[in-house]
Amino acid sequence: MDKLKRVLSGRDTEEPSGLAEVIDATSLGWGTRVKCFIACFALGCLFSFLGSCLLWVPKKGLLLFAVFYTLGNIASIGSTLFLMGPMKQLKRMFDPTRLIATVVMLLCLVLTLCSAFWWRKEGLALLFCILQFFALAWYSISFIPYARDAVKKCVSVCLS
Question: Which residues lie below 8 Å from residue 92, measured CB to CB, with a gap of 6+?
């Protein structure tokens, strides 16, 4: 029966390798993928919201904001791994059309955490959080056809 499924699904008629069996056994169904996406995205939103609330804590508020905001963004980006799969997500992230946006976004994530933990510069952490927001927005709209062109035109009209 398994051989018939492989033939009908377009797979080769030869016996699957050990790696193919592991991939088939560990792949998630679509319903599970959507549930995991929603849970991970909600966790990312919760972290970002919690970071925004912790911004007003005396002395350590800015540090907590930077950390939770960054963790929220990482969880939100990571949530899409459930929909596309890790390899397809990485290929799309480093596609030539969004390579610069991806590198800037990842760099801002890392620099936010570095400025919060190692350099202990709250102002720098806040600056990187702001840059992180814009980089993530630019990265996100790269998945919508012609959205970048529309944003560029809107900004140029507003500035002129």
Answer: 84, 98, 143
